[in-house]
């Protein structure tokens, strides 16, 4: 599993201009099951994506498709982790 930390490199006006295409990119990988959660950082300096079911190399290729990446809107930091504990109500998370 991976945590992708997205950090904006442009002003929010530029981010907002590319946001519809970025959301379509997210939707494509949510529908494939690769992305399992995403959202904005607070304050709004970027976002976080949780990804699973791919290698780090495959994820790097996927992130190249993001319009934010293609237009220099954001940079990405990818952290791989292996979840091994959750609260009882989130045990399903360990099976992803």
Structural summary, described in words:
It is globular, with a radius of gyration of 14 Å. It has helices at 12-31, 56-64, 67-70, and strands at 2-8, 35-40, 46-51, 74-80. The protein is an alpha+beta fold. It has a 4-stranded antiparallel β-sheet with strand order 2-3-1-4, with helices on one face.
As an assembly, this protein is single chain
User: Kindly state the mean pLDDT as a whole number?
Assistant: 96
Low-pLDDT residue intervals, each spanning 5 or more residues: none
Q: The biggest beta sheet, please?
A: 4 strands, antiparallel
Number of helices: 3
Give the DSSP E fraction (strand runs of 2 or more residues): 25-35%
Helix content: 25-40%
- Overall SS class: alpha+beta
Topology:
Layout: E1 2-8, H1 12-31, E2 35-40, E3 46-51, H2 56-64, H3 67-70, E4 74-80
Antiparallel strand pairs: 1-3, 1-4, 2-3
Quick summary:
The chain is an alpha+beta fold and 96 residues long. It has helices at residues 12-31, 56-64, 67-70, and strands at residues 2-8, 35-40, 46-51, 74-80. The chain is built from three helices and four strands.
């Amino acid at each position: 599993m991976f945590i992708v930390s997205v950090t904006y490199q442009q002003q929010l006006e530029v981010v907002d201009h590319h946001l519809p295409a970025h959301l379509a990119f997210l939707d494509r990988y949510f529908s494939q099951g690769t992305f399992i959660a995403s959202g904005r950082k607070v304050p709004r300096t970027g976002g976080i994506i949780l990804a699973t079911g791919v290698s780090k190399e495959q994820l790097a290729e996927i992130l190249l498709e993001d319009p934010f990446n293609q237009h220099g809107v954001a940079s990405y930091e990818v952290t791989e982790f292996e979840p091994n504990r959750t609260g009882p109500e989130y045990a399903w998370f360990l099976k992803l």
